[in-house]
Fold this sequence. Notes:
Elements: H1 3-7, E1 10-14, H2 21-34, E2 38-41, H3 46-53, E3 59-64, H4 73-86, E4 90-94, H5 106-126, E5 133-137, H6 145-154, E6 160-164, H7 176-185, E7 191-195, H8 201-210, E8 214-217, H9 220-232
Parallel strand pairs: 1-2, 1-8, 2-3, 3-4, 4-5, 5-6, 6-7, 7-8
Helix pairs in contact: 2-3, 2-9, 4-5, 7-8
Amino acid sequence: MSGISLAKSLELHLLQPLVTRDEVRAGCLRAASSHLAAVCVWPAHVGIAAAELEGSDTRVRAAIGFPYGQEAPTVKLAACDRALRDGADELAVMLDHSALGEGGDPAAARAELDRVLEHAWWSALNAARGRSELTVVLETTMLDLALLEPVLRRLHETPAGFLQTGSGHQPRAVTEQHVRTLREHLPADIAIVAVGGVATHDDAAALLNAGAVRVGSGSAVSIVEAERLARSTRPGSGTTG
């Protein structure tokens, strides 16, 4: 996998609880220089990220409802609209996990998903920049995929382009086997964004090989830099140590 092709499969996640505006600006500049696919930021930082990434090939993703998804749906939808106005290219919307697990309320989970999807259709028709990409976010490593089956099936032929494996704020790391299993449960037209515990080039490459289309990590820039350094020092590269 080449450096540039790996880079376009990586998202830099700037979602630390105390991340500063200056850190967001610096992270965006590094992401643009590395030609990453996207930078994922808190809603309050979307405008900053959009300004820094203007003219680059790196997109802005807004993290809506992170990290637990327990805001009211109307609050999330208002945050989606604000993020699009502030310059977001993509929206990553966390569903309410209190309704998703064992003993939860499947009807409520389905209703929230339907509202998000319906709103995404409407936003797509009205956005001046055209359709924005919608990512539905579930803590899939923490939940029984069998219980999520109705929600995952509902994603077929909807405005959603991606299913993200988690917020990155949970202790479990996403694994190759988990991505493969999730791929079996998902409609073919929904791509996987693997997030959670991704720290190295080997981590990212393994998840992409398992079926993820993108990998999100706070170490995305470092992963690309490490790969490019390794490529430049291979025998025959013309670079000596």
